Amino acid sequence: MYMDMNGRVSTGMTGFDQAIDYLRLGDNVVWQVDTITSYKEIVTYYINNALKNNRHIVYIRFGQHPRIVTNSLSIKTYEIDANKGFESFATTIHHIIEKEGKKTFYVFDSLTELLSNWSSDLMIGNFFKVCCPYLYELETVAYFAIIRNVHTYSTIARIRETTQVLLDLYEVDGDKYIHPLKVLDRYSQAMFFPHFIQENKVKCITSSQEASRLFANINVVEERLDYWDVIFTRAKEIVHQSIEKQEETKQKLMALLIGEKSRMYDLCATYFTLKDLIRIAHREIGTGFIGGKSVGMLLARKILQQDPNKRFEKYLESHDSFYVGSDVFYTYIVQNGWWKLRMKQKTREGYFHYAKELRDKIVTGKFPSNIKEQFVQILEYYGQSPIIVRSSSLLEDNFGNAFAGKYDSVFCVNQGTPEQRYAQLEEAIRKVYASTMNEDALAYRMNRGLFEKDEQMAILIQRVSGDHFGDHFFPHVAGVGNSSNLYVWDKNVDMNAGMIRLVFGLGTRAVDRTVDDYVKIVTLDQPTRKGLMLMEDEKKYSQHGVDVLSIKENKWKSIKLDQAMHEVWNVDRTIFASIDTETFFRLRDLGYKNIQAPYILNFNQLLKHSTFPVVMREMLQQLAHIYQYPVDVEFTANFKSKEDFQINIVQCRPLQTKGLGKSVSVPYVLEEEDCFIQTHGNFMGGNVRLPIDYAIYVDMHAYLKLTEQDKYTVARLIGTITRKLKDSNLFLIGPGRWGTTTPSLGVPVHFSEIQHVNAIAEVASKQKGFMPELSYGSHFFQDIVESDIFYVAVMEGAKETRFDSTYITSKPNKVFHLIDKGKQWRNVIHVAQFDEMELLSDIVTQRFLCR
């Protein structure tokens, strides 16, 4: 190919080279064409000249149209599957460009073909914007094509803005015309006229008579919808057509909104109608998938609405959620100029290294103007109702990967001027996007082999369920429900009846542990049954704080239970709480006047004299029956009376469990025999027979004496040890709650620090202040069960419980070999290696043994 000392490159058409003053190294050349055949002819000139001059040529093949470049040993061809999604496609091409190096000459298939894969003009513009600067940087020359009058003006505008050369190619009555629209850094008085092309001869059409006759026939100016909108507009027309036609269209829309084939996809196909999918699309911002959390919520509601016996109709609170499509996430990354950093972070060596830098950038970016306008419309729709912005990634809340608690959810109290409320919404969305780079989320993905899988972040925007009470907003109750209760601490507990963790106010306390506060654990077969904890003091071991949204302060906060109770005006408060008569009379005797009655939050009336626990049980059982899998739901409920209430299912996901199969024979160990732990009940994980290679023990007495900072240090050291021993079977034992955020309640490890262990034990001691409210239903617990980590609570000193720490501490302490300054921590952390230790549990007899 001709190339002079100034880097000028020939198109293969000598006359046209002179008209545009040649191409330059670094040029991306975009041809708007009417047919692929026209593009192929132009490419042929370019390729033939390149071959004559021994240029390195690469053909990027991804379209369904006929090949643009014929097979040749002199031309390197890459076949790429665009159906794998934008990120996979763009990443693959990035690596190709990187591999092929400088001054390579490229031919790409028609970009319009990507519509059949992504159904979005937006994403074609995104691809061009991330691909072309890298080609320019490596001084390549690349040919692209788009079919005329197919793409939106905004897509064409983004291509025009990014490319160096934009050319219109027309064919009229067999004659070819090229009309340059953009030629960067080159100019002549005739350059931007149309040119008649005949082999190597070019005639510049300057005559108004000829130009007007040409353009009158070919240039029709009209606004075009995004291909995404075209699909859904056509779908509305099919709603009243044949069942077969509707089903065909439904499958197409599901592929656009729900994602690839999976168990969740199949359930959606069974329950969602074409009308349902169109309704979802009408409430989507941008394009792309709505994500796992949105799908789970919508599917659960649909299953309950279609209950054959209509059991749940009157109990289901309506929802009016919006969905920010997953394509908006990529658009945000691309348009803010962070794609190259994203590519560095996606490598194995840069996976954690570049995450913080990318996270810091994400919280500062700007959204495209058309997306901002749709955000404004959402806020206008909700008015000043509080909303919550929730992560809804592609992999979230799916079978096997719930990503529980890995990504952020952000409340917007939604108070202030329209400008202030808009700023809060944008900040919340940025925060959710940035949480994709959280260390726990990255480690979770890496540990489950999802490192290279696209993890686009969609967003679910929900109206917060509840009402105004004084200066605060909250629902009457909220919580987490599970269809299978592995809290079988009593042989009379029906595992299949399920259980709920119940709180007054916002449900944040049901998933995140709060210091000195306890949620209500309810077994749904016997709702008034006392929980697993040693709760001799009903008031002490109950909920004392209530999470609310402060209308006055425009933020999420916690207030005292009595304040929240006295603000409730629309229902009998004794449904939820009992008057604390003992405290009331004591205060009165002390001389206090005008005392507001203090409450104990025990939900006695709700659980004894309401159908609420029955409805919750039946809902959970129905969802589990349809899922054919245990489920975990988040819910709120608002009451007019004990029997007049509505439940809002805000989230539903499969609950990962293990070990529900064949019974394990657990021998009974006599008192004179050696044993590490023997207990009745208080474990989760079903039937297990697990050999243990290493036991990692945190001594309760030594831990209690540490400063708070040293307790955090212990947590980090545990992470170091488990990572070094990750290829062995590990049993982790420690005081109180693993994963607590409060060191006084236990060891504050991150889940990523203990994800390699096989079993954990939480040792409770009332005398020493460690009273763990077991982790069931929390985000930390969800990680435990998904990762097949067995769990046992050891109630030190309780009946039918043996716990002998010397079984561990009598063995040589390996901590010296595993961490720096091991001698300093030898009394706190003891790592013992075993050849024959075994952990056994049997869910039928509720017996657990480790020796």
UniProtKB/TrEMBL annotation:
Gene3D superfamilies given in the database record: ATP-grasp fold, A domain (3.30.1490.20)
Catalyzed chemical reaction(s): pyruvate + ATP + H2O = phosphoenolpyruvate + AMP + phosphate + 2 H(+)
Domain Pyruvate phosphate dikinase AMP/ATP-binding: 290-665
Pathway where it operates: Carbohydrate biosynthesis; gluconeogenesis
Presence of the UniProt keyword Lipid biosynthesis in the record: no
Record key words, sorted: ATP-binding, Kinase, Magnesium, Metal-binding, Nucleotide-binding, Transferase
Cofactor: Mg(2+)
Database matches in Pfam families: PPDK_N
Enzyme class label: transferase
Organism domain of life: Bacteria
UniProt entry tagged with the keyword ATP-binding: yes
Functional note: Catalyzes the phosphorylation of pyruvate to phosphoenolpyruvate.
The family this protein is said to belong to: Belongs to the PEP-utilizing enzyme family.
Protein name listed in UniProt: Phosphoenolpyruvate synthase
Species per Swiss-Prot/TrEMBL record: Gracilibacillus marinus
